[in-house]
Specification:
5-stranded antiparallel beta sheet, alpha+beta, 10 strands, Helix Hairpins, 10 helices, 344 residues, 3 domains
Length: 344
């Protein structure tokens, strides 16, 4: 009956995909289960028996394996993760537990090493780390600000340029609600409710948005005109938060104001002398017509007056063309300054 139970136990152990090794107190390999032989790609287990278990491990893994072995020898459980290639050289990472095995009197008589193949998980972690490093390098190579936030509006990441633009260190923003820190008020200081925030609404509606007529607030209490775009962040098709790209457009706004002022002043400066020219032409036309009506005026003089009148008429038409161009300039200036009034 006992032999049958031992046979069942051995069958269960051999069926495990984990690599289960029994060691003596010196760390020599006494046995390894069938699943472990497959995982380690061992064709002839006899070549491995009575070898030093530590020889399976390479580099820094051997040091942590030695510590786990020492823990098990004094009745504790040792754990570590390490790299060990298979018998055929296939690179693999393992999650390892080393435990003591006690006899009926409570004395340690054997050590048990259970190793689980975590190579796929390790490669996935390495790929994630690579992608994270690439993303970080990309974000740090631009002078635009980028930050991410979770569904509660808390900052999950921000690049250095973005933090500096806002007057913060990166660590001061991580985990903090970005709306309450940088978008809490309008430019006039009036409160900006989170539910009215375009960034918050874009995330909730799962649609992107872009604005260039808003402000962000710095740590020191000052604000700057900002252009920003917000897009929902999804992971495996599930909404996780949002990513916001922003920039300080103070210089652009100042240039726009200077351009608007230039257009307005230039238009008015052109319009004033043109009005004077137009008035003088019209006055001259009246004088010429009055001169033509004089009875003493000769035929030759009348022809000269007619020619002069034609020339003045052409000049007046050109003046009207220039007047329309200047009016168009003024209209453009008013549109850009939102001061154009429409008559319907």
């Amino acid at each position: 009956m006992q032999d049958a139970q031992e046979h069942v136990n051995q069958y269960i152990i051999d069926s495990s995909p984990d690599c289960i090794k029994v060691l003596d107190l010196e760390g020599k390999l006494l046995s390894i289960n069938k699943g472990g032989q497959r995982a380690m790609e061992i064709d002839d287990v006899s070549l491995c028996l009575h070898t030093d278990w530590l020889d399976f491990w390479n580099g820094s893994a051997k040091h942590v394996a030695l510590q786990a072995l020492a823990s098990a020898r004094v009745g504790k459980v040792g754990t570590f993760q390490g790299f060990a290639p298979t018998a055929k050289g296939t690179p693999k990472w393992w999650d390892v537990v080393v435990t003591p095995v006690f006899d009926g009197n409570g004395n340690i008589e054997r050590l048990l090493s259970i190793s689980r193949d975590i190579t796929a998980q390790r490669r996935l972690e390495q790929e994630r780390e690579r992608l994270l490093q690439e993303r970080t390098a990309l974000l740090e190579s631009t002078d635009e600000g980028f930050y991410g936030m979770d569904l509660h509006g808390n900052c999950t990441f921000i690049n250095k340029a973005g933090a500096e633009m806002l007057g913060y260190a990166v660590d001061e923003l991580l985990g903090k609600n970005m709306h309450y820190l940088i978008h809490h008020s309008h430019a006039d200081g009036s409160p900006y409710a989170e539910e009215d925030c375009p960034i918050f609404r874009a995330m909730k509606s799962e649609q992107g948005s872009r604005l260039d007529n808003d402000v962000f607030w710095r740590k020191d209490g000052s604000c700057f005109p900002a252009e920003y775009s917000s897009h929902p962040l999804r992971e495996n098709g599930e909404l996780r938060g949002a990513v916001v790209a922003f920039m300080n457009i103070t210089e652009r706004k100042e240039l726009e104001q200077q351009k608007d002022a230039f257009l307005s002043i230039t238009s008015h400066e052109l319009r004033t002398p043109l009005t004077t020219i137009k008035g003088n032409i019209q006055l001259t036309q009246l004088l010429l017509k009055r001169l033509q009506r004089e009875e003493a005026f000769s035929k030759k003089g009348s022809e000269i007056v007619e020619n002069a009148s034609d020339m003045l008429e052409r000049a007046l038409r050109q003046t009207a063309v220039q007047q329309r161009l200047i009016n168009d300039l003024l209209d453009v200036s008013r549109i850009q300054m939102n001061k154009l009034e429409l008559s319907l």
